Amino acid sequence: MARAYVALGSNLDDPRAQVLRGCAALAYLPHTRLLRRSPLYLTPPWGLAEQPAFVNAVAELETELTPRTLLRALLEVERSFGRDRGGPRWGPRTLDLDLLLYGDRVLAEDDLQLPHPRLAERAFVLRPLADLAPDLHVPGQGRVDALLARVDAGGCVPLDDA
C-alpha cells in the first residue's frame, strides 16, 4: 500500500458541493481507501485570473494502485463530473483532481510527474496539505510546512467544513 495525496478544486456549478462529492468519489476507487480530507478553502484563481474563485482541499489516500493507474482513475472521476480538459489552461472547471504525491516516488514522464511539478508554488495546495501532513517531506523540495512558509497563503480562506 502506498500513501498518496490528491488535490481537489472546483470553481463551477456549486464548487463546494463539487469538491465534497469529488472527495466522496475517491473513497470508491478500487483498491484504495480514503483516509481523510483537509478542510475546504476558498482561494483566488491561479494562472488565469479572470474567473470565479475556487474551492480547494486535499485528500489523503492509501492505495494499491500504481501511480499511473491512480492517475487514470482520477481523470475518469473528473470526466464523470463533466470536466472538459479542452478549455483554457488553468481555466474554470467543475472538478480538478491532481495527484500531488505518491509515497516518496519521483517520476518525470510526459503525462505524470511526481511530486506534482508546481506543488511548491501553490498556496491553494500547500495550505490544505499542511493541515493533513505539515511534516511530510516532498522529495527534492523539503517539508510541507517549510514550503508553505515560502508562499503567500493569505488568499486561502477557510470555509465552514462539512
TrEMBL record:
Q: Which Pfam families match?
A: HPPK (PF01288)
Name the GO terms of the biological process aspect: folic acid biosynthetic process; tetrahydrofolate biosynthetic process
Catalytic EC class: transferase
What does the record give as its pathway? Cofactor biosynthesis; tetrahydrofolate biosynthesis; 2-amino-4-hydroxy-6-hydroxymethyl-7,8-dihydropteridine diphosphate from 7,8-dihydroneopterin triphosphate: step 4/4
- Annotated CDD domains: HPPK (cd00483)
Gene Ontology molecular function terms on file: 2-amino-4-hydroxy-6-hydroxymethyldihydropteridine diphosphokinase activity; ATP binding; kinase activity
Which E.C. number(s) belong to this protein?
2.7.6.3
Claim: ATP-binding is one of the keywords in the record: yes
Signal peptide from the UniProt entry? none
Keywords, ordered alphabetically: ATP-binding, Folate biosynthesis, Kinase, Nucleotide-binding, Transferase
Under InterPro entries, the record lists: Hppk (IPR000550), Hppk_sf (IPR035907)
Annotated 7,8-dihydro-6-hydroxymethylpterin-pyrophosphokinase domain ranges read 89-100
Give the protein family: Belongs to the HPPK family.
So what does this one do? Answer: Catalyzes the transfer of pyrophosphate from adenosine triphosphate (ATP) to 6-hydroxymethyl-7,8-dihydropterin, an enzymatic step in folate biosynthesis pathway.
Which named protein is this? 2-amino-4-hydroxy-6-hydroxymethyldihydropteridine pyrophosphokinase
Species source reads Mizugakiibacter sediminis
